[in-house]
Specification:
two-stranded antiparallel sheet; about 70% helix; about 190 residues
Length: about 190
């Protein structure tokens, strides 16, 4: 967007320069001359040879270039605002989905805890407990997926805004990450 705005500023300056060329450059040069003990004041006048040349074509071209730059800026701005709006909507949806999945995971964890107590008391069987634990594991995976979707939405929002939303992390996880990926220390 900055580039499109700078292109518009350049087109505006070109238009101002074209408008300025429609009037002839007139230069007056006062001077003082001592000629054989005579004091003379001189006045020099400088005019371009084609005194009233037509600058209308250059002005019309500069106006058209400025209109093109303005349209390009409007398109760029609309695209950026659209990307930001979409990213904000995705962020809101991902945040709501994460909250729902986390609530379901908490409910499933409470259910597993209740089934463990019932199994200890003899009111439930091992199959019910395993089914509850499998459901809890699935919900944990769904929570991770929802967190990833939220991270993707934040990334899309940062790309639309073109600057980070959060300060960079101070954690240096390079060695630990490399060890996890490779499986052996570097």
């Amino acid at each position: 967007m900055r580039r499109a705005l700078e292109e518009y500023a350049v087109a505006e300056q070109d238009l101002r320069a074209a408008v300025a060329t429609q009037y002839p450059d007139l230069t007056l040069a006062p001077g003082y001359l001592l000629d054989q003990a005579d004091h003379k004041i001189t006045l020099g006048l400088d005019l371009p040879v084609p005194l009233f040349h037509s600058a209308n074509a250059a002005i019309k071209r500069a106006i058209a270039d400025r209109a093109v730059a303005a349209a390009k800026f409007d398109d760029t701005q609309a695209a950026a605002l659209g990307a930001i709006d979409v990213a904000v909507a995705e962020y809101d949806a991902a945040l709501a989905a994460l909250a729902a999945v986390e609530q379901g995971e908490r409910d499933a964890a409470d259910t597993v805890t209740s089934l463990e107590r019932r199994l200890a008391a003899g009111a439930a069987n091992r199959g019910q407990l395993l089914a509850g634990q499998i459901a809890l594991a699935g919900l944990k995976r769904s929570t991770l997926t929802a967190r990833r979707a939220l991270l993707d939405a934040v990334t899309a929002l940062e790309q639309g805004v073109e600057r980070p939303l959060y300060p960079p992390s101070q954690i240096d996880a390079g060695g630990e990450l490399r060890e996890l990926l490779v499986g052996a220390p570097p």
